[in-house]
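Our consortium's second objective concerns turning raw sequence data into structural hypotheses that experimental partners can test. To show how far this objective has progressed, the report includes one record in full. It was chosen at random from the queue rather than selected for favorable results. The single chain below, 244 residues long, was entered without modification.
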Amino acid sequence: GQFGRALEAAHAALEIATAIGHREWMAGSQSALGALYVDMLAPEEARPPLEQALALAERLGSRHWIHHATGSLAVACWLLDDLALARAVLDAVLSPGTDMDSVHKRTCWARRAELALREGDPRLALEIVERLIDSAPGMSRGRVIAFLWKVKAEALAALGQTEQAVILLRAAVENAQATGERTLLWPVHASLARLYSTTHLLSQAAQESAAAQRLIQELADTIPAPGQREGFLRRANGVLEPVP
């Protein structure tokens, strides 16, 4: 969640890779920069480096960076309200037979599950995320993967299974707090706030919304450019639904 420092590092990496002509690390640095802009909810700034990274990775035949760039580019597309393009981007690397055997292929599959939710297909989202959980290396009783727990909870909530969704989201909050994943923690709090609000647990909804707002402000305070900071605040707070 240290966005300013992360931007400095990403730009420095790209400058070094470009200076020495290392094309694979140019692709990697562009992709990392684009992914960072996605976390900052700045899709307009994310798309150019991600598209450049993807084009270079395809010329190099680097499946690693192709999948890395694709996962983030899909998010940038749907943040820009272009679900059709997000689907096309993911369909270029995923088919029903595509394995879940590398970290960035798994990320693309997770993004496909998120897209299914946005397209109103929670059953598909649930099917994908359960396959991701079942195939996760080293899974054991009690282990939590906060991002997948969040997506599964949102799919279950959409299917009316709110009690189980709350349990998953609470576990995701605890895990993200323990691992320090602040860029993931605020959306989980936001999901909990929405779920509590729909079930008329307004006190709990207000608490979760307040927790999300605190984290959003803390993250925004690390962004040095005023325009980027204001854009992050606007989009992030727009995710939070007003609690009655």
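The partners drew two points from this record. The mean pLDDT is 96. The radius of gyration is 18 Å. Both points have been shared with the crystallography group to help prioritize constructs.
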